[in-house]
Design goal:
- This protein has about 575 residues and is mainly beta.
- The chain folds into 2 domains: about 120 residues, no CATH class; about 425 residues, Carbohydrate-selective porin OprB (Porin, Beta Barrel).
- It is built from 6 helices and 23 strands.
- The strands form 4 sheets. Strands 3-5-6-8-9-10-11-12-13-17-18-19-20-21-22-23 form a 16-stranded antiparallel β-barrel. A two-stranded antiparallel ribbon has the order 1-2.
- Strand 8 and strand 9 form a beta hairpin.
- It starts with a strand and ends with a strand.
- The N terminus is likely disordered.
């Protein structure tokens, strides 16, 4: 038996589901017409009920189907060779469908149902409103790191006042530098070893907003609002199992567009990841950039992709009411970082890839400025250049006293009440060259060589020599300042061997690195917080490795050894053992 269906009837996915289910026999409630022994007739009657075809069209199809069925029975009854079966004319616009056995029909029905349901789920019309649309635009991610850290200081480290904690002074009350003050300025720990258990927990979400727009938010732990660390020391923040603070770590809006087949452009605004290609010689891995950044990549072909980055970032915005304890306010000292980078990502051979970038980072208003003559009678008084001091620092840069305190009878003609803040003795305009060579001929083992060189073009050695109060050579009497020994250059070299990413169990990598960072090569507040316990005026090596325990958990260990380059002797070894979990 065969039947014909007009090619003009094209039905949507839901109709196909209905027909596929009825091919094996429609339910009784769906049949208004008397049941027929011909499945095709039953199917056509149901199509009428569903409103898929008219009754007039259905009558024609039924007549045609019954005629073909009769012709088929005649052909079967005629012995072979006895004659030719009667041909049933095929009206225009029809397609002949031969009789299909029940088993084949069931298989076809199941396949159609599966395909249509898959399409329904993709297009969202199978179960409308079952899942809110906005949830499908969100992607959550997070990670937790448990760390043991041991900090071990050298036996020859100077510990008689050679390492003032400028960050503690500048973020608190000014320090009285007069000889009548019996107390030392806040000092960095350089002689007592410490062991800590530390936690880092981060949770973020990215929302796809359509037409190239997205937005992201991430929160993280941290002992403080330090820009270069999200570590929380367990037992810290008051101890006694007190709760830990959560900080806003990222918050941004992003626009990404494919301008042409070759040109991709990304614009970031808010607080986002470092947009520049670089290493932790200049920028700590945890550092977030505030402001605006424009990135562009142009694919010349599959092997060659030039790229460029431009950005403007507010480093510090002046307190709106500065100075708060007087009616006449002081001039603004907003600080900005302007960055530009151009480079190329070049696969110059089958298993060799080179990525290199030349960067220029210009800091505006970051250098400390000597104040106008001012009268200071207590720690609460302010001078007009107080805000040129850094709002965050690690250690290593050369510092100068900011306040020009007028000698009066009230301060013993300059012998008492000399409350001081400290600022950077030189400006910073950093020129950096970064390169990475990736060797894949030992796949799945990768060999990666990283190198970076930086020079501070704004380094003013004369000013640092005249005004700087640290990074000076030791003197026999320990009271008079020695010769200035700081510098403006830094570089690093790093070798990484192992699997490209830690995504499968027993994936591994090993890393070896050497760093050399003179005192004023870069701003000490933004680079790696682990090497030498952060900052500049350091040189030394790193060795470490990681091992994946499954696709979401990996362990790692690092040993870092650093020594001071200029000034008083300082050495520290840092050992870290980590367990990382990501989700």
């Amino acid at each position: 038996m065969s039947y014909r269906v007009k090619t003009g009837y094209r039905h949507l996915g839901p109709a196909l589901l209905c027909l596929a289910g009825l091919a094996a026999g429609a339910p009784a409630w769906a049949q208004d017409a008397a049941p027929s022994s011909n499945a095709t007739v039953n199917l056509i009657n149901l199509m009428v009920k569903r409103g898929l075809i008219t009754r007039a069209d259905a009558d024609g199809l039924i007549a045609q189907a019954e005629a073909e069925a009769a012709a088929a029975r005649t052909a079967v009854a005629t012995p072979a060779g006895a004659g030719t079966a009667v041909a049933v004319p095929s009206p225009d616009g029809t397609v002949r469908v031969q009789y299909v056995p029940e088993m084949v029909r069931k298989q076809i029905r199941d396949e159609v149902r599966t395909e249509v349901m898959a399409q329904a789920k993709r297009e969202g019309w199978a179960t409308p409103n079952a899942i809110p649309d906005w949830t499908q635009r969100l992607k959550f991610s997070g990670d937790i790191r448990l760390r043991y850290e041991g900090d071990y200081f050298g036996n020859e480290n100077a510990n008689t006042g050679e390492f003032p904690n400028f960050n503690a002074i500048n973020t608190g009350n000014p320090y009285d530098v007069s000889d009548t003050n019996p107390n030392f300025a806040p000092q960095l720990n350089v002689d007592q070893d410490r062991e800590r258990l530390r936690l880092r927990a981060r949770l973020g979400v990215v929302a796809q907003l359509g037409n190239g727009f997205s937005a992201g938010v991430r929160v993280a732990t941290g002992d403080s609002n330090s820009p270069v660390s999200t570590n929380q020391s367990l037992g810290g923040s008051g101890g006694d199992f007190s709760k830990y603070a959560i900080w806003l770590d990222r918050g941004y809006v992003r626009y990404r567009a494919k301008m042409t087949d070759a040109l991709d452009v990304t614009v970031d605004g808010g607080r986002f990841d470092n947009p520049f290609f670089g290493t932790d010689l200049l920028w700590d891995d945890d550092l977030g950039f505030d402001g605006l950044a424009l990135s562009a990549t142009y694919a010349v072909d599959k092997e060659l992709q030039p790229f460029a980055v431009l950005g403007a970032f507010p480093v510090y915005n002046t307190d709106f009411n500065f100075a708060s304890n007087q009616p006449a306010k002081f001039e603004s000292h907003d600080k900005w970082l302007y960055g530009a980078q151009a480079g190329v990502d070049w696969k110059f051979a089958e298993d060799y890839r080179l990525k290199a970038g030349l960067s220029y980072y210009h800091y505006e208003n970051i250098r400390g400025e000597r104040s106008s003559p001012c009268l200071v009678l207590s720690a609460a008084d302010a001078c007009d250049t107080d805000l040129t001091r850094p709002s965050f620092a690690q250690k290593g840069n050369t510092y100068m006293a900011l306040r020009s305190i007028s000698p009066t009878a009230d301060n013993g003609n300059g012998t008492t009440d000399q409350f001081q803040y400290f600022g950077l003795a030189t400006g910073f305009r950093e020129l950096a060259l970064t390169a990475r060579l990736d060797l894949a001929q030992f796949d799945p083992i990768r060999v990666t060589l990283d190198g970076e060189y930086v020079k501070n073009l704004a380094f003013d050695e004369s000013r640092a020599r005249t005004l700087g109060i640290n990074n000076r050579a030791p003197t026999p009497d320990g009271t008079t300042p020695g010769e200035f020994e700081g510098g403006d250059t830094g570089y690093m070299a790093r070798l990484t061997v192992g699997t490209e990413s830690l995504k499968q169990r027993w994936d591994w990598n090993l890393r070896f690195a050497y760093k050399y960072i003179e005192s004023d090569a870069i701003v000490d507040g933004f680079n790696d917080s682990d090497f030498g316990l952060g900052g500049t005026n350091l040189e030394g090596f790193l060795i470490g490795g990681n091992l994946a325990l499954n696709e979401n958990v990996f362990a790692g260990m690092r040993w870092q050894s650093a020594d001071s380059i200029a000034g008083a002797p300082y050495a520290v070894d840092v050992f870290q053992a980590d367990l990382n979990a990501r989700f």
